[in-house]
TrEMBL record:
The keyword ATP-binding does not apply. This is LysR family transcriptional regulator. CDD domains: PBP2_LTTR_aromatics_like. Belongs to the LysR transcriptional regulatory family. Residues 5-62 form the HTH lysR-type domain. Gene3D superfamilies: Periplasmic binding protein-like II, Winged helix-like DNA-binding domain superfamily/Winged helix DNA-binding domain. The keyword Transcription applies. Keywords: DNA-binding, Transcription, Transcription regulation. It holds the Pfam family LysR_substrate. InterPro entries: LysR_HTH_N, LysR_subst-bd, WH-like_DNA-bd_sf, WH_DNA-bd_sf. Residues 317-326 have a biased composition (Polar residues).
Amino acid sequence: MGMDIDTRLLRAFAAVFDEGQLTAAASRLGVAQPTLTKRIRLLEGQLEVRLFERSRAGMAPTPAAHELAARVPALLAGWADALAAARAAAGRPAVLRVGFESGTIHLVGLATVEAFARRMPGWQVRLRQFNGFDSGAALDAGEIDLALWHAPPEEGGEGGATADGRYGCAPLGLDERWVVLPAGHRLAGRGELAMADLLDEAVVSVPAVAGFWRDHWVGADARGGRPVRVGAVVHSPDEWLAAVACGQGIGFAPASLGALAGRPDVVFRPVRGLGPSRAGLYWPAGRPPTPAAEAFVRSCRETVAGGGRVRPPTGAVDQTASNGAG
């Protein structure tokens, strides 16, 4: 039986298989739930098999789904390899796509790109900015090859995977979490604060859909079970910084971001009792990193981390960076 399969259908299937429910899978892919349902039904129609048994408890995979799930990662990886080979044959430079959140792009500079170029002649690095929680959907959808994130240390441990098993991880180094205050805040004059000083403060937060990123960046792990009071919910780094500057709440950010914020109306301060964040490169667990991705990991480790602590690079890089080839 011959047929044409849209890779979006395979990624939709993989997300539902992994999550076990449509709501979580739709959030992971960044699509509406009706769109996801339509893709699953279309794939079932093309295959002429039922892939999931739907119930109030979620989406239970059938034996056919288990067989398909065992093969989908290789299919998607093969398609990515075929695209890269076609570009190379046409004389176009091969491209490694790296997503980043606003708090991490300063970690990648000219030194990183040059180190990558030495390892992978003829390749380019293309950087794309996301909100931290959006780049997970881009990874799952195959829109990027790697994501550069700040995450809780346990989400980027030396075991090589996040705690939920969804992503592989190459840790780069630790970065302190500091508090960000409006310049006129009553605590802004102190050189250092304790987490206990901040527990009653409203916090500017990303949406709850961000999952462990949201909890990490409101300091949930250092609150002793005390609930956070959200002063504003924002959807982008610029919104976040503006909300803090306008007094809608305090924020928490990587210490290495402080020197780059560039706003006189906010201040960054160290916090006792608030553990660090870990910068790392992430990829879907079902799609092992390519040689180019591994070369980028090695290049970042060579240029980004020092003594286990993240240090800003000496060079700068645009949001689309090239090693000069092609």
